From TrEMBL:
It is found in: Cytoplasm. The keyword Transferase applies. Pathway: Cofactor biosynthesis; pyridoxine 5'-phosphate biosynthesis; pyridoxine 5'-phosphate from D-erythrose 4-phosphate: step 3/5; Amino-acid biosynthesis; L-serine biosynthesis; L-serine from 3-phospho-D-glycerate: step 2/3. PANTHER family: PHOSPHOSERINE AMINOTRANSFERASE (PTHR43247:SF1). The modification N6-(pyridoxal phosphate)lysine is found at residue 193. Its main location: cytoplasm. L-glutamate binds at residue 39. This is Phosphoserine aminotransferase.
Amino acid sequence: MHNFNAGPSILPREVFEEASRSVLDFNGTGLSILEIGHRTPLFQAVLDEAIALLREHMGLLPEQEVLFLHGGASTQFMQVPMNLLDETATAAYTDTGVWATKAIKEAKLFGGVDVVCSSKDSGYTYLPKEFTVDPSAAYLHFTTNNTIYGTQWQDLSFFYDKGVPLVADMSSDILSRRVDFTKYGLIYAGAQKNIGAAGVNVVVVNKEMLGKVSRPLPTMMDYRNHIENGSLLNTPPVFSIYVCLLTLRWLKKAGGIAAIEKENERKAGLLYDTIDALPLFKPRAAPEDRSRMNVCFTIEDPAVEAEFLALCKEEGMVGVKGHRLSGGFRASLYNALPYESVVALTELMRSFAQRKG
Ligand SMILES: *Cc1c(COP(=O)(O)O)cnc(C)c1O
């Protein structure tokens, strides 16, 4: 099978193997990873190593705390403004896709929201770059990679001189390319795209951002409580965190972010070159904003589109259908997807385009 799913998505084969062994016998303990207590030294070692590996991969500062939280990235749409945006303050948001829109909707529940730019009118096919941010904004929120529309900010340093703290939803491209993660006040990402299994999200928060809002915070929503309790405020998603650990170990063995970035460029390069070479297929995103993680394209004739989808299915290619909101095709090329899968897809595209004349 070639798995192009957008999330949950492909993970390395060795992660599946090690995780399944640990479901039966974790580290030779005679116990399943599914039945060990979260406050045991056994799980503490998993948590400590996962956090240490994330810190190492991302090159974080001591004041940046790593948390494993429940509720997926969607809960962060609400938890971020609850912790960082006072009722009388305003936060700046970029509107570059569905996930950004959802983040904006939640932020409005807590304070002022200034939508500084939007590419909604074009169907989110490009990233709007002409905008200013009020220096008094509590933070600037942006989505680094727009999973549904296949756009990705290429040069993130564009944001670094905006003069306000940065908050980024990195759900679909975290750990896929080198980023100066120290520039961020807060980063969040659902694990199910590049970090591990569904059921947990990673939050990296600079402690200096916290404690500045006047509203009382529910215990489980207050980042400070999770920091104080080392992500063990309540029962964490033990198995999901364990799968993150295995994936982070795999990434280290593969040479870390710098090495995987080269591989991701090679994969995306091959697919975009193929799309550009075959007039049957139309790229969806503006050339300068193309995502290396989610490659979106279309075929003009819906009948031919359906035919190609059926062919993909026959050839064991999973997850090539585009999101229901954007249609067409979407091939997600996350870290664990082998180059050979892209070769197989592009060969299929070539032979199909040839047959269609
Ligand atoms: C998938 C995704 C989300 C939603 O993640 P959940 O874990 O399902 O809440 C949010 N933002 C982006 C950019 C995503 O790709």
